[in-house]
Design goal:
Layout: E1 18-21, E2 32-35, E3 45-55, H1 57-63, E4 81-88, E5 100-103, E6 113-117, E7 122-123, H2 130-135, H3 138-151, E8 158-161, H4 167-178, E9 182-186, H5 192-197, E10 201-203, H6 210-217, E11 222-227, H7 233-239, E12 241-249, H8 267-281, E13 289-292, H9 299-314, E14 321-325, H10 330-339, E15 345-348
Parallel strand pairs: 8-9, 8-11, 9-10, 11-12, 12-13, 14-15
Antiparallel strand pairs: 1-2, 3-4, 3-6, 3-15, 4-5, 5-7
Length: 350
């Protein structure tokens, strides 16, 4: 997939360190790029000069205080980053200045210099583009772990990937196809060619006969459904599973919820998971189950990110980067994500 580069320039006079700040709930245009003091690492922490930081729906949810773990205002957005260590604090071992690393601090990555816990770092090999490297941090590990650790789908089985043209969906689809899995991917009609190019069969997620279309393509049922929308659509996904299949919910749409209702968008998925898994324990679901996935740092995160980087370096996987933006364009980039039409990952390059 072709990467569209943006002309990246910071405004003249910007301080040595600068960060994007969200002062209150509101539209992304309210973000401000502000000078900031150079961070000093606390105990067990390091300072990283950021090469690239990802833009995701987590930031969109945080703007409206609709994220399940909402930060207080003001805050610096930014779920993940790739960069180089410039300084380590007391007690840091195994990490040196100059090391290229990835981190998933969940907030604070939209800055030139970020202070992050050393224990959450993962190594990043030389030779991989910073924007492509950060596209694999949260999105890549999410895709890998849902497919291989949680669902454990085998070659020859069929899966449904909602949002197959998105940041997670493109990687999940590419990984599944590479492993001989039949992928049905939902997307808006304008993105069907991109989904087809990944090796999946595209369907319109808004089609009223979606379950019937899926059953035509996978008459034996689905080994897994990967859902990032939540809500009533989960019932539809559950109905399409084969015996022993798994419905994986890895996010919830916040459309239609009022700002500040940080927990309500995620209640429908939690309620369904509780009920269906209780029925499974009673032997009433034919072995079907539902799992709610949330990417976490740790040993598994580092191992799986390393696997994704090896695939990228070998040419077996190309992380799709839709566009690169400067830190000063964070509001514009977030608005573009909110408006839809993005295939792949939007990235900030300080």
């Amino acid at each position: 997939m072709r990467t569209e580069d943006h002309n990246i320039q910071e405004p003249a006079g910007t301080a040595a360190n600068a960060q994007v700040v969200v002062a209150a709930m509101g539209p992304p245009e309210g973000m401000a790029l502000r000078p900031a003091p150079m961070p000093r690492p606390g105990r067990g922490r390091v300072v990283v000069e950021v090469e690239a930081a990802g833009i995701s729906y987590a930031e969109v949810q945080m703007l409206g205080r609709l994220h399940p773990f909402p930060p207080g205002f003001p805050f610096v957005p930014g779920y993940d980053l790739v960069g180089r260590v410039t300084e380590g604090g007391r007690g840091v071992v195994g990490v040196r200045p100059g090391d290229r690393v990835a981190a998933m601090p969940r907030k604070g990555a939209w800055t030139r210099f970020a202070e992050v816990p050393a224990k959450c770092l993962a190594p990043v090999p030389e030779g991989i583009d910073p924007a492509e490297a950060v596209a694999l941090v949260t999105n890549g590990v999410t895709a890998w772990q849902m497919l291989h650790r949680l669902a454990r789908v085998r070659a020859g089985q069929s899966v449904l990937v909602h949002g197959a043209s998105g940041g997670v969906g493109t990687l999940l689809t590419a990984l599944a196809v590479r492993h001989g899995i039949h992928v049905i991917g939902t997307a808006s009609p304008g993105k069907h060619e991109q989904v087809r190019a990944l090796g999946a069969h595209p369907l319109d997620y808004r089609a009223p006969d979606l379950p019937d279309r899926v059953r035509e393509l996978a008459p034996g049922g689905l080994a897994a459904v990967f859902d990032h929308i939540g809500g009533p659509g989960l019932d539809q996904g559950w109905s399409m599973l084969a015996p022993g299949g798994v419905l994986v919910s890895f996010d919830s749409s916040v459309s239609g919820y009022s700002p500040g209702q940080w927990f309500r968008p995620h209640v429908p998925a939690m309620r369904r998971a509780l009920v269906w898994n209780l029925k499974r324990l009673l032997g009433l679901t034919g072995g079907r189950r539902m799992s709610m996935y949330y990417v976490k740092p740790g040993a598994a995160f580092r191992a799986d990110l390393g696997a994704m980087y090896r695939l990228a370096l070998s040419g077996d996987l190309r992380p799709p980067v839709a566009q690169r933006y400067a830190l000063s364009e964070a509001g514009t980039a977030t608005r573009r994500l909110m408006d839809g039409g993005v295939v792949g990952k939007l990235v900030l390059v300080p």
